[in-house]
Each structure stands twice: as C-alpha cells, then as structure tokens.
C-alpha cells in the first residue's frame, strides 16, 4: 500500500467518524471528492506501474543497442582468414555520414571468400 492509499484510507476513516450524511449537500460534495480522490490514486498506481514497465523496457533496449553498436562499430572482423581485413579502413564511416552505393551492382556481384570483403 502506497503513501497515497494510506492517506486516502485515513481520510475515509476520519469522514466516517464525523458521521456525515450523504443526504446533505455538504455530505454529497465531500463524498464526491473522496470518490474522485480514489479514482486519482488508482490512476496514479496504474501510471506508476506502466512507468516501471517502460523503464525496464528502456534499459533492455539500451543494452541491446549497446551490443549492436559494439558489433557494428567495433571495426574488427571475426572471420578466420589471414587477409588482414580488420586493418582495412576503407569502410570506416562516421555516424550520420551519408554513404552512397549502387545496389544493382552489389546484387550482381558474387560474394567470395569469408564474406568480410576479402577474396580468400
């Protein structure tokens, strides 16, 4: 039970002790306010739960993105050839840099070797 629930329960108990009638204008208004507060507390709890879920999802996405960045921008080739393709700086691009390619030529070319761009 959260702090808001505790305060609301205290207020409800206090109002019961006052023995306000819900037949009077003042009693109707006060009980309507308490009903509104109950709705607000419930909505707040739902939003807090959703926020917790979003924070967890955000952390998971951040971890996944970090792993992807390591794979894409590490610059190391994990193939077992001896072509020194790790040292090839021809395709080191900066983030946000426009890279132009001719996709038709790439589709026609046959991948040779280990797939890292070397022909071993």
What's the structural blueprint in terms of helices and strands?
Blueprint (H helix, E strand, L loop, with lengths): L2 H16 L6 H49 L29 H6 L12
Helix pairs in contact: 1-2
Keywords:
mainly alpha, 3 helices, 120 residues
Summarize the structure.
The protein is built from 3 helices and no strands. With 120 residues, the chain is mainly α.
Question: What does this 3D model show about the protein?
Answer:
There is one protein chain. The chain is mainly α and 120 residues long. It has one domain (3-90). Helix content is 59%, strand content 0%. The protein contains 3 helices and no strands. The protein has helices spanning 3-18, 25-73, 103-108.
Level of helix content? 55-70%
User: What is the number of independent domains?
Assistant: 1
Provide the low-confidence segments as ranges: none
| Rounded average pLDDT | 79
Distance between the termini: 66 Å
Q: What is the overall shape? A: rod-shaped
Radius of gyration (CA) equals 32 Å
How much strand?
A: under 5%
Largest sheet: none
Say how many strands there are.
0
Number of helices: 3
Oligomer: single chain
Secondary structure class reads: mainly alpha
Q: What is the succession of H and E elements?
A: HHH
């Amino acid at each position: 039970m959260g702090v808001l629930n505790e305060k609301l329960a205290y207020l409800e108990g206090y109002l019961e002790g006052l023995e306000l009638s819900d037949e009077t204008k003042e009693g109707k208004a006060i009980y309507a306010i308490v009903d509104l507060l109950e709705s607000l507390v419930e909505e707040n709890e739902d939003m807090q739960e959703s926020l917790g879920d979003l924070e967890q999802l955000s952390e998971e996405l951040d971890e996944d993105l970090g792993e992807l960045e390591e794979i894409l921008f590490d610059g190391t080739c994990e193939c077992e050839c001896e072509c020194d393709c790790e040292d090839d700086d021809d395709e080191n691009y900066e983030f946000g840099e426009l890279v132009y390619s001719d996709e038709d030529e790439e589709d026609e070319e046959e991948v040779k070797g280990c797939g890292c761009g070397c022909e071993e």
